[in-house]
Design a protein that fits this description.
The chain is α+β, with helices and mostly antiparallel strands. The chain has 12 helices and 6 strands. Helix 3 packs across helix 4 and helix 6 crosses helix 9. Bound molecules: iron/sulfur cluster.
Length: 309
Amino acid sequence: MLQQTTVKTVLPYFDRFVALWPDLSALANAALDEVLAAWQGLGYYARAKNLLTCAQAIRDEHGGAFPASAEALRKLPGIGRYTAGAIAAIAFAQREAALDANAARVLARVFALKEGRGPRLEAVAASLVPAGRPGDFAEALMDLGATLCTPRRPRCSLCPWRKGCAATRRGLPESFPAPPAKRQKKERFGVAFWLLREDGALFLRRRPEKGLLPGMIEIPSTAWKSEPWDLEEAKREAPEPVDWFPVEGQVRHAFTHFRLDLRILCGTSESPREGLWSPLAELSRFALPTVMKKIVRHVLEARAEDGKN
Ligand code: SF4
């Protein structure tokens, strides 16, 4: 229950839950809908389902008794490496490490390791677990991370491991472990067509109802592809075969999953086509997506610099 949820929120749920199902056998015999109903409001319903199927697996495959080894525990539904280690160490006094995010941070700092997870950190953790009171060791390490060795501003002067802590010796405790590398966003490239009628109206079109910016009004452009466009090639996708000339610079916009880099070609329509044309002064009538507003701003600024406005 405590994963992603605060203790304060969990307390009444926990009390109700154990009142309804005071032991493993009672829970294993419960119906999924009842368990989900008791969980309502805690979110992440997969945890409730796992709790039930785990109780059933222990009833059916382990004679109703929790297995004591971390290896056997990990085979149960919903029990991963950390939980298996914690149950084995705390409930069964097995010499197992329980590496939650707090404990991992402490060890990464004590040994000045850049990684905040993975086999090296797990090996370090395993090598430290004492034969006596491994459960207390696991809890103490997690508590140290939760109370003193916090992600920001660790209180090293109060820490019992201060003398042996490599990160503190270097004067940089907060730089361990290194923050996870941000995934690089994909780059996309396109060319937008700023097509004006002789009366100064701009050619617009509506995007397809499905996909990105569905049904929104846009300034037409080529497809957005992973390689920059050759401008001559891009012109073949223009709404009209007129004289296109490029605007200096480009418009950049970050969508959730990619970054878009747009070049802009300007042209004047020679035989104005049917479709959506808008005077520039009336563009605000349309709910243009931000990236389209950036194009408008970019072109207008470029024209102003050229003295065309
Ligand atoms: S000395 Fe500071 S950085 Fe090192 S374990 Fe203790 S609180 Fe964390």
